[in-house]
Structure formats: C-alpha cells, structure tokens
Specification:
The chain has about 550 residues and is of the alpha/beta class. The protein is built from 19 helices and 16 strands. The termini are close together.
Length: about 550
C-alpha cells in the first residue's frame, strides 16, 4: 500500500500506520519526533510537508546540520514531492542566487548557518514560511544556529517539526530543545511499540567468538606488565589508590586531575612526572586494545605514528624492552588476528548465498578499514571500498563530502558491493538497505550499536555478525552495549511518562499504552490486533484530518 496525496508522487511513499499517525499529530501542533535510525523520520517530514503546502501554501524550510545531509534530504524530497523545485542552500551558493531561489521555490533545504546569515543580512524573511523542519533537532541548544532561526520563526507563529534519533535520556534536555524550537508536543517510538513492530523486519544477530592467538597473547601479556608498572608509579604519586583494577576511564580521570594541577600553577616535579606516566599508561593501554581486538598490523601502524612524535612518553614507550619484545612477537609469522579471516569469510559466505548482496563491514579504526578492504579485494565477486570521515591524519587522507556521496551512489548501483566503514557511516548519511552488517568489534555505546545494526532489516530481513575476541575488552563492550540498550528502552518508556506531565506526548498505537516490560508489549500488540476489526471511531472536532493520505 502507498500513500495517495496530490502533492506526493504516486507510489513514492509506502503507507505505514505509525508514520501517518505521527504525521497527523505533527499537523496539529509543533512536534519533536524521536525515531531510531531507519524508521523513516524523513518520510514523516515529507508527509507533513505535503499536507502543510496543500492546506496553507507558503514555503517550507528544511534544515540539516551538514551539506551532505542537506543534499540528501533535497534529493529525497525532489523524488517524492510534487511541489515544484526544491532549492539547496549552502555556503557554496552565492547570496544573490539564494535570494532569487528563495523567492521562486516552495521548498528550501539548507544548513542553519546559511539561513541565520541571510536573515541577519535581510536577504530573506520568514513571513511566507508555513513549516520549518529541524533535522538532528537535539542540536538546538546553546548557541547553535537552530536556536536563532527558531527564535526568528517563532514570531511568525508557524508550524515546527523536529526530528532526531538521539534526543538524550533526560526529560529536562528534551524540554530544553522543545522550548528553543517552540515545540509543544513529542512523539517517541521504538521498534518494540505496537504500531511500529509490524513494519520491523527480522534481524538475525550472530556472535562470532575467536581466540587470541598464542603469539598475540604473549605480546598482550608483556604489554600488560608494562601497564602494571605505570599504574604502580601513579599510585606512588598519589593517584588510583582507591582503584584496585583501573579502567581506561580511571586513567583518563588521572589525566584530567594532572592537567587541572598544572593549569592551576602547581608545576612540581611529581606533577610533571605524573603527566608523563599517565600519558605512557594511556599509550600502553591503547596498544593492548589493538593487539587484543584489532590486529598486529593496526598495532604496528600505531607504533609507527608514535615514532614520528617527540614526546617523552613516546620515547619511553618505544625504548621499553618489554614493548620491543611485544612488537617483535606481533611481527612474527602467524600472529595476525583471526578476526580478519572470520570477517572475510562471513562476507564471502553472504555472497555465496546471494551474489547480488550488499554488505557493510564496520571497524572502529581506520587502519583496520584499510586491512579489511585489502583482504576482501582478494575474494572473487567482492568489490569493496573504504569509507572514512573527512579528517586527514598524516598520510591517511580522508574523504571529502562529495567523495562520500559518490561512494554511496556506486554502492547502490553495485559498482561496489561491500563498504568497509568507520563510525561515519553509522548515522546521518543515507546508506542503502544491506543484507549483512559485520561488526569487526562490539562497541560499548547502545546508540552506535543500534545505528550499525539498523543498516539492515529495513525493507526485508537482514543479518548481523559481531566478531568478539574471548577474554578481552570485546566481551566487556558486548555486554555493556546490551545492558545499555535494555536500559534505554525502559528509559524511553519512563521518559514518555515524565514528559506527559509537562507537554503533549503521543501514545504508540493511538490509545494503547505500552509498558516497559515484554509482557506489556505483547499485551499492547494483542490490543492492536483486536482493534483492527473495530469500526473507525468518529473524528473529534478539531482533530487533524489527512483526507488525502489514503491507500493507493
């Protein structure tokens, strides 16, 4: 089924009950929509834009934080809307061209800074704007340009739509965003809500466990002994005495304490010594993570970069005899990490089953993205490409925004069939539906885990393979993300209840309340199924009417 609307191309927008319901709510009041990655926030925006233009005419302003996102949204709106030209405003477009297009186009997609500047220079006015859409709306705090644009628009009294996947878990933060944008309602959904779950396709998640190779384990043990030495030194200097087994977080806290002492003028010998020891401890700690969970090539590349620096901690690290011995073991034959072969085989296995597959391999580090691209290139039928951010780090040149968009276009057409990506592909950019997502390592963030996983299972069932090295921090990250994700779903239910006391909050499934427990969710689904056979209830006076959002 597709949405039928005079300002939407025929069969351009699939009809999903929760999207139509949320769009109807957004037409009644200015609303913040919170949906996970892949659940169609931009589709809801298109529905609201089409109906707003039909009812009120005027203009629609669609704001997004970056140029690639602006161009992505503009391309989508051009594909689905029948509302004339869609203008794209970025800093690269001359002001006189923007001024002309503002007068002639009904829909304008822009970065907020450009609109802020054009308003200040009085090149444009918001008098004719009927709707402003704020993508990544959680950014509307402090001095970010969203706040100034929303303040200027509030005088117009028009409709506001904020969309985000990451609103934060505190009601106060969400209310701050709502206040800054002039929003009076919130719609929050998760994939477990009864009006959403029918559209969520199954995702098979497989955990692939590997053992640390013998040479790698010996190298790791040597590095651990070096780390123990640095922790003992820090304790002698008065730090970490209440931490029997210090974590990375604890070491970072020591760094902050030392910097505060130096900034306050306490530049004693012990403080300088603590600064060097803490820096050395962090380097050793990072080396342990690389050798345990990434691979020896990543470790060698890291050590090579340290050799280019000239800090005391770098020199001490490289000259330490146990570090030298660990590096020699890492360089020995057969010491490469088994994850590399496992990841390559998972990708190869997918293409044996389905030759026209699309696959994403996520790696935390650029070095491993390079390694995996090289290894996958050797396999028949696999055309991989490395996908990283814009920053250039030494000889590692980043991708421009244009290059990123070009790669994703070639991924859609099949010129590339595997993208080996760092975190840059986890959110924002329009990555197509894929058949398999490979996590080279677990990530401790529940948001990043959901974003990675959400690249599959959008239009049809998908697979996820998570590579986990036994008895390493991989295990801790895996269970940490799982705990945080379970807590997040419970927090979103709590958040809806808290916000309901201060602001309008839409209820999933119309009148069906969804409890935080699985039992409550199952009961909610039963109620939704039962309500399908009920005759429609008469519309209340003043309730939003989407007369043209009908089935085609």
């Amino acid at each position: 089924m597709y949405v039928d609307h005079p300002l939407l191309r025929r069969q351009a927008v699939e009809e999903r009950a929760y999207q139509v319901t949320i769009a109807a709510s957004c037409l009644e009041r200015s609303t913040l929509v919170v949906l996970p990655t892949g659940m169609g926030k931009t589709v809801i925006a298109a529905l609201v834009i089409a109906e707003t233009l039909k009812r009120k005419g005027g203009k629609v302003l669609f704001l997004a934080p970056t140029k690639p996102l602006v161009e992505q949204h503009a391309t989508y709106l051009k594909d689905v809307l029948l509302a004339g030209d869609v203008a794209v405003f970025t800093g690269e477009k001359p002001p006189e061209d923007r001024e002309l297009e503002w007068r002639t186009c009904k829909v304008v997609c822009s970065t907020p800074q450009v609109i802020e500047n054009d308003l200040r220079q009085k090149r444009i006015a918001l008098d004719e704007v009927s709707l402003v859409v704020f993508d990544e709306a959680h950014r509307a705090v402090g001095e970010y340009a969203y706040v100034d644009v929303a303040t200027a628009y509030r005088e117009r009294g028009g409709l506001v739509l904020g969309i985000t996947a990451s609103p934060g878990s505190q009601a106060e933060k969400i209310l701050e965003v709502c206040g800054n944008l002039g929003i009076s309602g919130v719609e929050i959904r998760t994939e477990f809500d009864p009006d959403v779950s029918p559209y969520v396709h199954g995702i098979e998640v497989e955990k692939v466990f590997v053992e640390v190779p013998e040479q790698t384990a010996r190298a790791r043990d040597l590095l651990r002994s070096v780390l123990d030495e640095q922790v003992a030194s820090l304790r002698n200097l008065g730090y970490l005495r209440d931490r029997p087994r210090p974590t990375t977080k604890d070491l970072l806290a020591v760094g902050r304490q030392v910097r505060e002492a130096l900034d306050s003028g306490r530049k004693s010998g012990p403080t300088f010594r603590a600064a060097t020891v803490q820096a050395l401890a962090m380097k050793v700690n990072h080396a342990i993570e690389l050798v345990e969970t990434q691979g020896t090539e990543a470790l060698r590349n890291y050590v090579g970069r340290l050799g280019e620096g000239d800090s005391r901690a770098n020199r001490t690290f490289l000259k330490h005899p146990k570090v030298a011995e660990a590096l020699a073991l890492a360089a020995s034959e057969g010491a490469e990490h088994p994850k590399i072969r496992k990841a390559a085989w998972k990708v190869r296995e997918q293409f044996i089953k389905k030759p026209d597959s699309r696959v994403i391999v996520f790696t935390h580090y650029r070095d491993m993205a390079t390694v995996m691209e090289r290894e996958l290139t050797r396999l028949p039928g696999i055309k991989p490409v490395r996908f990283v951010g814009q920053a250039t780090r030494g000889e590692d040149v980043g991708l421009t925004q244009k290059e990123q968009v070009d790669i994703l276009g070639k991924f859609r057409t099949g010129e590339y069939n595997v993208v080996v990506a760092t975190a840059v592909a986890e959110e924002g950019l329009d990555v197509p539906q894929v058949d398999l997502v490979v996590f080279y390592e677990p990530v401790p963030s529940e948001i990043r885990t959901i974003q990675r996983r959400g690249r599959t299972g959008r239009r049809y069932a998908g697979r996820v393979a998570v590579l986990v090295t036994k008895d390493t921090r991989d295990m801790a990250y895996l269970y940490s993300a799982r705990r945080k994700e379970a807590k997040m779903h419970a927090e979103l239910d709590r958040l809806r209840r808290e916000l309901r006391q201060k602001i309008f909050v839409g209820t999933p499934g119309g009148e069906t309340f969804v409890a935080a427990s699985p039992k409550g969710r199952i009961e909610g689904l039963r109620k939704m199924e039962a309500k399908k056979d009920e005759p429609p209830k008469p519309r209340k006076p003043g309730q939003a009417e989407l007369t043209d959002f009908s089935r085609a």
